[in-house]
Design brief:
Blueprint: E1 27-42, E2 52-66, H1 71-77, E3 81-86, E4 89-94, E5 106-113, E6 119-129, E7 145-151, E8 161-165
Antiparallel strand pairs: 1-2, 2-7, 3-4, 5-6, 6-7, 6-8
């Protein structure tokens, strides 16, 4: 959930509170954090070399394949929808509201390994899946739900993502 209470940096090696964070299960082929920075060139007439650069755009994504093809994980990668359940069944319908609707941003937290086999935690604070979702059902392969979560601006004082490494 966007705005969820984050675990403290000192709690990098503990499980986050289930009341604020939902476990999406295992992943396959790891988790990839990508940061794309675009710089504009600064120049003057008197010098042939670039005299400086100015950051004009920054994007970051967290990408993985969710190894548990649950309706809840599908709902997350499709940025919401309607779920229902009853005795012996549950269902999901995708969101089909107008394009002017404000999306439901969420926060995500991935735990992995830092150097020397210590823990690393990456927290994306305002995320939304902005990529296509294609789920393949084949007889000889595991069903995976691809997820490419794009980070968004939070505020002038809150960064869009935070990385914590355990050191001892």
């Amino acid at each position: 959930m966007f705005g969820a209470t984050e675990p403290t940096d000192a709690a990098v090696n503990t499980t986050p509170a289930a009341s604020a964070w939902v476990d999406l299960g295992g992943t396959q082929d790891g988790v990839k954090l990508s940061v794309d920075q675009t710089y504009g060139e600064l120049e003057v007439d008197q010098i042939t070399l670039r005299v400086g650069s100015r950051l004009t755009k920054q994007d970051f994504t967290i990408e993985t394949s969710l190894a548990e093809a649950t309706l809840e994980n599908l709902s997350l990668t499709l940025n919401g929808g309607t779920s229902a359940s009853g005795a012996g069944w549950k269902s999901f319908d995708p969101n089909v509201t107008s394009s002017a609707t404000q999306p439901n941003y969420f926060a995500c937290l991935f735990d992995g390994y830092a150097p020397s086999q210590f823990r690393r935690r990456v927290i994306g604070r305002k995320m939304l899946n902005t990529d296509s979702v294609e789920v393949a059902y084949t007889k000889d392969k595991q069903v995976l739900i691809p997820a490419k979560f794009a980070g968004h601006y939070v505020s002038g004082t809150v960064t869009p993502f935070h990385i914590i490494d355990q050191t001892a």
